[in-house]
Write a structure and sequence with these properties.
It is a single chain. About 65% of the residues lie in helices and about 15% in strands. It is α+β, with helices and mostly antiparallel strands and about 600 residues long. The strands form three sheets. Strands 3-2-1-6-5-4 form a six-stranded antiparallel sheet. It starts with a helix and ends in a 5-residue tail after the last strand.
Length: about 600
């Protein structure tokens, strides 16, 4: 059998010959049409155009004769001479474009008649006007003009008929060429389709077999015998491919075995790695059944019997851990590990109390939930360290508060003159010392509050309280500062009551007012807002200060954070304490600020439902 290469070359050669045949035939028809149009356009039409110009020149000469007959000799003579010159030029052009003997004879007759006309006009011009000789010459010239006009008209009509005949012949040739081209084109298309179908079948049949063989390789992991005999074509070009497919089958078999072994090894390593983790790990399926607990998790919640599945609530005795897994299965938003509550889950392990922080997340495959996994991070040592830190801060703050208070009282007595009249310089030093001691006293108070709030010792005591009382007492606490700085305190308060820890909220609002006063220019105002909404109450403090740079807004409520360049007034704990108090009430606190346009601090407390 011929090779695929030879068959494709033969098929393409036949197609090229068909195309060449159609092109040669079309070219011959076009040349024939071109010859017909060449006769019509370049000769006959040009000759007719010349005769038309000759008639126009004769008409001009006739007008000149009319003017001469009317007695306008000079004008008539000029017009006649101009037409005579144009006629002679057009006649010469017509002689050059004449096509046959008949054209040349008629043009010769036209030339003789025109010379006779010129002769009669010359005799008329030489005779006296209106004399018998003049009248005879004028009548003879009109007669010659009529003969000349008729001769040119016959020449024009005959050439126009010749043009129409040539056009009809060209159209006939064009129609014949059109019909023949259609017949030849369709015949060529038919033959080309047959050849193309033949070529496509020759190529596609082995390609289909190749595709089928490759698909069977991917679908059949056992590499059955039919796959190895998939190619039935005898074309030489595909024999090497057939052998390559067989080699590929064997290689795929080896690779599948290696991949299966590797996956089994990876699965065993992953399982053993999770089991050997010191952190407890719990995995559940999408139906809420615990499918795996490593040894650390089983030491907390008991062993998980092999082949016996338990629900999350049944396998895990701690409700907080179980709820975290349920939340992960329902894809509820979980807080990141560093934002979880500071009091972790308390669990007992071998008669020892341990604290764990939970990180639970859903196991997803696209949008499908396959299950959930919870990792318990042992934070016992961190909790102990945090307790030691808070205890130290609380003890240090408590012990330092007494001597600082004593120093503050002594300094105030010195300022009031208890030890004698002070000089101006001594008064300035005492005033500076008082400011430093007051700032130190506030810092001690803030440190003590921060330690207690961080250790969850200072929980809110919810009691009914009026919003106006909170604002009035907070304003009283900062009234002296506002008066010193000539800053007006403006309130915009709705009259309502709600349940909260009034002392703690006064502390929050006082901190916000102190910050606003400290950062407001003299002569400005600070506005306090309070309003009740559907499910919460909101308090806002608005100042006209310099504002807070954008890059500090995200961490302004963190401990010990102070904006560079701001007026010093503490250790950077006021806003952190305010946030802790608000969040202990179940609320939120935020800030909106733009440099040069002041700041607005807002906190909200949820309305407690009636019991």
């Amino acid at each position: 059998m011929q090779s695929l290469r030879v068959q494709l070359l033969i098929g393409h050669l036949l197609l090229v010959l068909l195309v060449a045949l159609v092109m040669v035939d079309a070219t011959g028809d076009l040349l024939s049409i071109s010859d017909s149009f060449d006769i019509v356009l370049t000769k006959r039409i040009s000759l007719v155009d010349s005769t038309q110009r000759m008639r126009e020149a004769l008409s001009q000469q006739r007008s000149g004769l009319g003017l001469i007959g009317a007695g306008k000799l000079n004008q008539g003579n000029l017009l006649y001479d101009s037409g005579d010159e144009a006629f002679t030029e057009d006649l010469s052009d017509a002689n050059r474009k004449s096509l046959g003997t008949r054209d040349r004879l008629e043009l010769r007759q036209v030339s003789l008649l025109h010379k006779t006309l010129d002769k009669e006009v010359a005799e008329m011009m030489s005779a006296a006007p209106q004399s018998p000789q003049w009248v005879q010459s004028y009548n003879d010239s009109v007669h010659v003009y009529s003969q000349l006009t008729d001769t040119i008209h016959r020449l024009t009509l005959r050439n126009q008929k010749a043009i129409f005949g040539a056009s009809a012949r060209a159209q006939k040739v064009a129609r014949k060429a059109y019909v023949k081209s259609i017949i030849v084109t369709f015949a060529a298309i038919f033959v080309a389709l047959l050849l193309s179908n033949r070529i496509v079948n020759i190529v596609l049949k082995p390609l289909r077999e190749i595709v089928g063989a490759v698909e069977s390789l991917g679908q059949d992991p056992k590499l059955t015998t039919p796959n190895k005999a998939a190619l039935t074509t005898t074309l030489p070009e595909f024999q090497n491919l057939k052998a390559s497919l067989r080699q590929l089958e064997h290689r795929l078999d080896e690779m599948r075995l290696l991949e299966a072994e590797r996956l089994n090894q990876a699965k065993l390593m992953a399982g053993e790695s999770i089991k050997s983790l010191s952190e407890p790990v719990i995995t559940s399926d999408a139906n809420g059944k615990v499918v795996m607990m490593n040894e650390a998790a089983q030491s907390l919640f008991g062993p998980l019997a092999e082949g016996h599945s338990k629900s999350i609530d049944e396998a895990i005795g701690n409700s907080f851990v179980a709820d975290s897994l349920h939340d992960a299965l329902s894809q509820q938003a979980l807080e990141p590990a560093d934002a979880l509550p500071s009091t972790p889950v308390r669990l007992k392990v071998r008669d020892q109390v341990r604290y764990y922080r939970i990180n639970a997340n859903p196991i997803l495959k696209g949008d499908q939930i396959l299950g959930a996994v919870a990792v318990l991070e042992d934070v016992t040592s961190w909790r102990e360290l945090d307790e030691m830190k808070n205890n130290f801060i609380e003890v240090a703050s408590h012990e330092l508060r007494t001597p600082v208070t004593s120093l503050l009282l002594s300094t105030e007595l010195l300022k009031e003159g208890a030890a004698g009249v002070l000089t101006e310089k001594q008064s300035q030093l005492i005033e500076t010392q008082l400011q430093d001691l007051r700032r130190l006293q506030k810092m001690m108070k803030d440190l003590l509050d921060a330690a207690r709030l961080g250790y969850k010792q200072k929980t809110p005591e919810f009691k009914p309280i009026a919003a106006s009382d909170i604002i009035n007492k907070s304003i009283e606490a900062v009234a002296s500062i506002a008066q010193e700085q000539n800053i007006a305190l403006v309130t915009n308060v709705e009259d309502f009551s709600f349940e909260a820890d009034g002392v703690q909220l006064i502390q929050v609002l006082t901190n916000l007012l102190e910050n606003a006063l400290r950062h407001s220019p003299h002569g400005k105002s600070v506005v306090v807002h309070a309003r009740k909404e559907a499910n919460e109450v909101r308090f806002s403090v608005e100042d006209e200060g310099k504002g807070i740079p954008q890059k500090y807004l995200n961490n302004i409520f963190e401990r010990f954070v102070q904006v560079p360049g701001a007026t010093s007034g503490g250790a950077g704990l006021g806003l952190s304490i305010a946030k802790s108090i608000v969040e202990a009430h179940g609320g939120w606190i935020s800030v909106k600020s733009q440099q040069g346009q002041g700041s607005v601090f807002t906190f909200a407390i949820p309305i407690r439902p009636a019991i």
